[in-house]
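User: Need the bound-state model for arginine:
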Amino acid sequence: MNPSSPRADRVVLAYSGGLDTSVAIGWITAETGAEVVALAVDVGQGGEDMDVIRRRALDCGAVESVVVDARHEFARDYVAPALQANGLYMDRYPLVSSLSRPLIARHLVEAARLHGAAAVAHGCTGKGNDQVRFEVSVMALAPELRVMAPVRDSAMTRDKAIAFAEERGMPIDVSRRSPYSIDQNLWGRTAECGVLEDPWEQPPEDVFVYTADPTASTAPDEVVVTFVDGVPTALDGRDLPLVEIIDELNARGGAHGVGRIDLIEDRLVGIKSREIYECPAAVTLLTAHRDLEDLTLERDIARYKRGVDQRWSELVYDGLWFSALKRALDSFLVTASEHVSGDVRLRLSGGTAQVVGRRSAASLYDFALATYDTGDSFDQGDAKGFIDLWGLPTKVWAARAHRLAG
Ligand code: ARG
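Assistant: Bound-state model below.
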């Protein structure tokens, strides 16, 4: 195999193991004559064994089938920066799918080079954000690659997909399909479609997998998260890889129904859609991180950073992970996150992760300045002159208003 001479008749498909991408293997071959290399990326989605998924792709006609364990890469290179950015879209969605798509795109490009493919393919529809994220990422990383999107571009509807699979005796169990469209990874789980398309309809309990019913009472859990420079490094004093911290908090937060989000969301393609998210670890860690920033960030950095956080989250949501502005904002976030280090104590209970304490060797909280008790080092006499000058422009402006009105 010569990586420098890609073959026009070979394509690497982002493969999930589900109905659409399984059918896409045979479909692409039938439509274009190209052979398909299936690439399944483990971003901590759990569920089926990755080797079962790998073999299914071969059974569906892939010439090669590859599984990449990208969980640590996902945590380190995608989730950690998102935490430093307090990454939330519309102030509420922790960017679950938005973070995994650029990573999967990066692996598609790598696999295309390795297997000498001239094209990559994904199974997205034309109505969502994921198609944009995949394709813009591929454009940035390997503009020479063609992108195929059979579900969107060659009318591979669900009914046709099922008929196609049945006709060819493809080994796909259609009955196992969820009534919802699901995406999941370490950072959370997303659900849309079906009954959820009525925004007034309460999500039925069968939507939820990562979280227990928050109203079912159990004794609260308490957890201490340690951060170094804005990235979690330990739980309850145990140093752990980020992947394990997230796994454990998904389990512990999930047991208390932490991280359920019901959002009417503005998609990049202009549609408003109703999405249900479950992100126990993400919500716990984002809550803890934001609180630690309040303790350790200088005031002007903290205020300015809120705007950077929001812009960063929008860029990532909008598929611009590999873009100039996102990259420049990353540098700001790294610098701003220096000293966002310390411990945050949270109580997990009744659907919320509530901060109940924080401490840091890099704290800017000065007891002697803050206290109203003895030991106060703040000179209250300074406040008077400060207020006189601070209020001076307002005083002059208001005086003019009175004068002209009079
Ligand atoms: N609306 C979310 C987003 O745009 C979730 C998308 C989930 N993707 C899926 N193929 N079900 O990030």
